[in-house]
Write a structure and sequence with these properties.
The protein is α/β, with parallel strands linked by helices and about 300 residues long. About 45% of the residues lie in helices and about 10% in strands. It has an eight-stranded parallel sheet with strand order 2-1-8-7-6-5-4-3.
């Protein structure tokens, strides 16, 4: 696989009011994203509420996504778990169903040591039988950060082609770009921001794009920001960053994906409720989220 660059949407899983997966809505969202000019799709991640999806729901969503995308953009499926055996199983399934790559989160709750992490990702890579893997580094959800030094070691695993960096530490992001890009055994290695607010700084340091939450609602605007940054059009990229910044802040006023699903529902797109243990958006958060959403829509 060539280097992945651009704006990728961490796709929500739309639900009906009774909590059932809205498969027709999911199909609509895929086409909304493609029509908006997004560079790739990432279903079944945290934003897609994968921890609360049943296996049959996940498989149906993957099959639907593969059939709907038809290879037009890269389709990256979340296959991570805190149990290595489960991550192996999910990655084998993704490979069998024809996705382009897998997003594999650091094992959460267990807080593995370095050797455990290396062996975990080696096992998942082997199970994928050549399926490209992107590491998802998000210590705020997993309790375990992957340092730049450890990432450099993991980048030497042939199937690992990049990282979704959600550490929130721009210095660490820069260290990973410096140590891993172009030095991972001669293969392409992509560094994508996992924080919408850090997309522009990451691009300025030589990163490759973003796996974005707000692109669920504004795929075209996020894609335009990333393309401007990749082309070195700094003034345009800054303008687009500040245009989106109020909504970026509001979209994380409560636990993701609660706010983005509410905003999408208000916009007339498939969204619906979140599944427990995530509750509905608080009344006190509605005003700020609506106001930020309106600012971007009017820009």
């Amino acid at each position: 696989m060539n280097l992945l660059q651009g704006a990728f949407t961490a796709l929500i899983t739309p639900m009906k009011e009774d909590g059932a997966v809205d498969y027709d809505g999911f199909r609509r969202l895929i086409n909304f994203q493609l029509e908006g000019g997004i560079d790739g799709l990432v279903p079944l991640g945290t934003t897609g509420e994968s921890p609360t999806l049943a296996e049959d729901e996940e498989e149906k969503l993957i099959r639907l996504a593969v059939a709907e995308v038809k290879g037009r953009v890269p389709l990256i499926i979340g296959t991570g778990s805190n149990a290595t055996a489960s991550a192996v199983h999910y990655t084998k399934r993704a490979k069998a169903l024809g996705v382009d790559a897998a997003l594999v989160v650091t094992p959460y709750y267990n807080k593995p040591n370095d050797q455990g992490l290396i062996r975990h990702f080696e096992a998942v890579a082997k199970a994928g039988e050549g399926l490209p893997l992107i590491i998802y580094n998000i210590a705020s959800r997993t309790g375990r950060n992957i340092s730049a030094e450890l990432m450099e070691r993991l980048a030497k695993i042939p199937e690992i082609i990049g990282v979704k960096e959600s550490s929130g530490d721009i210095n660490q992001m820069g260290d990973i770009i410096r140590s891993c890009k172009g030095q991972a055994g001669g293969k392409p290695f992509t560094v994508l921001s996992g924080d919408d607010a850090l997309t522009l700084p990451l691009l300025a340091l030589g990163g490759d794009g973003v796996i974005s939450v707000i692109a669920n609602l504004f795929p075209g605007k996020v894609a335009a920001l990333v393309r401007a940054g990749l082309k070195g059009h700094g003034e345009e990229a800054r303008r687009r960053h500040y245009e989106l910044l109020p909504f970026i802040k509001a979209a994380f006023i409560e636990t993701n994906p609660i706010p983005i699903k509410a905003a999408m529902t208000w916009a007339g797109l498939p969204g619906g409720p979140t599944r427990l243990p995530l509750g509905p958006l608080s009344l006190s958060s509605e005003g700020p989220l609506r106001a930020a959403m309106a600012l971007v829509e009017q820009a």
